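**User:**
If convenient, please work through this fold.
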Amino acid sequence: MILGLLLACRTAPPPPLREEAYVWQRVWSPAVEQAVASSDLDALTVLAAELAWPDGTPRVTEIALPTLPANTTLAIRSAPPADDPTPILAPLIRTLLAAHPEATAVQLDIDLPTARLAEYADWITRLSAGCPVPVEITALPTWLSSPAMADLTAAAARTILQVHWLDPSAPDHLLDPDAWEHLRALSLFDQPFSAALPAYGYQVARDPDGGLAGIVAEQGHLVGGGEEVMADPVAVARLVTALRDDRPEHLTGLHWFRLPVDGDLRAWPIETLRAVRQGRPPTTDATITAADDGGALTLTLKNTGEARLSPPTIVIEGSVLAADGLGGWRWSASTSRLLPEDVPPLPPGASMVVGWLRPLSTPPALRLSYDSSDH
């Protein structure tokens, strides 16, 4: 009987991975508040303050936050300090926790050079000693080879390894291609950790040699424009499946950067995130319908999938007396196609009127084409 109980304990599956998301907005609009209120994740990590060190002088910017939901971690983003930052961080943490007693942890996000990790371990030890909630840290894969990494992970209540990045030589790939190996390496330190995964994008500009010339993250646009790049849901879903099928020891959760917010075009829609959380690529599907409006047919495109829809070409198969495009679509009479020319991606569940046509006799058949040769 005792042996059976022992065997059952040894083979009991680990608890489900805790799923969290970052709320990284500096201004909380109604859309941000709604996204937070409707989140079905286990917890949120909210940007609460930023710390800069111009000329070595601390400059603290606190984010105006409403009352936060339960299971919220307060994040402090800091530029690398020249010296010990604990005389600034300790009172800042006390101030933030006094303003938000509902917070359950504090997370420090400081991208220090690897050579300074021993200092960081000392800072975390001292900050944790006087903090009523756990103190967590974010970490970079480049830190894993440091001799000080063992002390740092032991000092922190939890380490969140960022396996999303922007490689200047290949900015289209926001998931570190060695993410699984990095997480496996972190598990060897025998301390609880989480994986921070990408659910966001950038606008990037390249120089004539193909290098990175400019970047915009959460808000704004580059002067002169640029290319919008987004984390690949298929690649991230594949990693989620791998982590669940062959879970590294001590991995406790997944941190999604960042929480989808209505109108945030540089973050995945919530439907995309929900699919990837299940370890599967989001579905991609759309419909085109025609509604009779006094003899003319109004054409409406609807995104019925779980990912943003890149506008397809709409092929008209049949005789047309007259037609025109609307809202960024152009009618090509020579090819009987409605062509998207200035049309942003369509969010899941959204629809738009793309044009109208007047059939010659019977209504023509409508077809969506994703073949670039149709454009």
Q: What stands out?
A: The chain has a mean pLDDT of 92. The first helix runs from residue 2 to 11.
